[in-house]
Model the fold of this input.
Amino acid sequence: MFYSSISATQTALAAGEVTTVQLVERYLASIGDQRYLNIYVEVFADEALQQAKEQDGRRRAGARLGRLAGIVLSIKDVICYVGHGVSAGSAMLEDFVSPYTATALQRLLDEDAIIIGRTNCDEFAMGSGNENSHYGPTRNAADPARVPGGSSGGAAVSVQARTCLMAVGSSTGGSVRQPASFCGLYGFKPTYGRISRYGLIAYGSSFDQLGLLAHDPTDIALGLEIMAGADNYDATAPNRPVPAYTRAESEGSKRIAYFPDVLNSKKLDGSIRKATEDALQEFRDAGHTVEPVTFDYFDYVVPTYYVLTTAEASSNLSRYDGMRYGYRSPNAATLEETYKQSRSEGFGTEVQRRILLGTFVLSSGYYDAFYGKAQRARRVIQEQLRGILADYDFILMPVSPSQPWPVGEQTDDPVANYLADIYTVLANLAGLPAIAIPTGNAEGSHLPVGYQLMADLWEEEALLAFTRRIKK
Ligand code: GLN
Done:
């Protein structure tokens, strides 16, 4: 039997209903039984058991235990953990071992979190279905013929399939909310800068944030409370006080905005439209103010995101040159051949496509037309969203326009695939916090659905408190 929250787990541990070792053994057995889902790139079985044993000893001795004692987590394969492999789902880093630990992960470890393994993901977090991984696709536990979403697909299924309690993922444009929604979980991305990015393998540095996937928003609140805050190794994580997210209460009637254009879009799946409309109706019935608003720039959202993130990716990924670390082609004879062949053999198709796109939009002569313009568009998008959020507490919208698709059936048309990111990339473009909220299975279907709520910068306290308040 598995517990569905941190507090339920810790109550059982304190009552002696279960030991930490037994808990870890159950999760390891669950991993073993569900290998076909391809959730993990690597399982840290011996180490997790060792940590569990050590914690049980401390518990028996009445010694201090951290706030995450007995809590089993997975980490996405883009998070550095000293002495452990980290590959970003790429052949480029298949044999790479982290020389240090990500700040946010260290904070979780300091509270006695037990890390059970690193989860599969799209290569360098580029993708929405976990099909771009060097290790093959992860499968959705609700329907193994379908994708779990991406890029944190393994993270989502690790929680969905009960192989750990909570997962640490990362979001550049939706990689936490979209897989969470495809797998029936809460998935949260904080304000840009709330959590240090030190030790997170870079994709688009002005977008990247760590996030959490769980069954229970209170667990996410605690995880955030521990991970958030300033870090001398990340200048974009400011010295702002970290609220006690787990204690924040949400009261009174809230003002919730939605975009009718989104609900009327022909591209929106019917059951997702229904889940979104039902949520709006429930909020009206509960006495909240629910009002339509307009956003003028939907047509520019996906192009802006893909110009800026590919530009940043082309720069970030230039470090994988076959010389310093990562894959080096054995077939190269000269320095230039080493660069070319290592990168051609080490990176997959999607990553290469994005490096080429990013190099193009940054090249002289095109820089102003593409990169400069996209930066201005990003500012305009952020200003309009923040204008709405000056009048409303939250914006409610779908997470994805489509349901999880069958593995292998994503189209070969990258533009069509990119367009499906439209509702999630908004929060990343504007740096806003957002959370995917599951609402159960779609009517008459075995596939989960949900919606998302977005809040103004640094309003994760209100966002998480409201999410906890409305949890059924
Ligand atoms: N699907 C989006 C992309 O491919 C978002 C990925 C992410 O958030 N890491 O860029």
Notes: Residues 6-247 form a domain with the Amidase signature (AS) enzymes fold (CATH 3.90.1300.10).
